[in-house]
Structure prediction request, 155 residues.
Amino acid sequence: MTTTPIGIETWHGESSRSDASCPDGEIRITVVFTTRKGTQAALRTAGSLAKGLGARLRLVSAFEVPLPFPLDKPPVLLEVLEQRHVNMVKESGVEAEEVEIDLFLCPDQKACLQDALKENSLVVVGGRPRRWWNRARRIERWLSRMGKQVVFVTE
Prediction:
């Protein structure tokens, strides 16, 4: 069994693991977690893009910890989150060892994502092909307004 590098970090306003830490000249395609099916579709598309561009893949999941809980003690076991993300990557058909998984525990998902992605990031978001009230579509539009290059993929 191959292992996938997983970074779990509690976010307090600035992340040490961002697209900005990618070496100069190297292309990184980031998939933002939305739903299981949507993220798997985004991973498949990002995997195809990455092969064509010689890019690295990164899956970013900002898990919002409810206010009553401290960030270092979320209401879900970290091992469960880790395994869920590793399984999602494997089920997508993308080579698991080619995907860097970053799980952020944060009080504010949007602020965390904004910090984790540099301005010109190439981001792939997957979700259902619904109207504007779809959560994945809202994330896509929000990231676009933040200056990210966003590709939306339907599940």
About this structure: The beta strands are 6-10, 28-32, 56-64, 99-106, 122-127, 149-154. The radius of gyration is 15 Å.
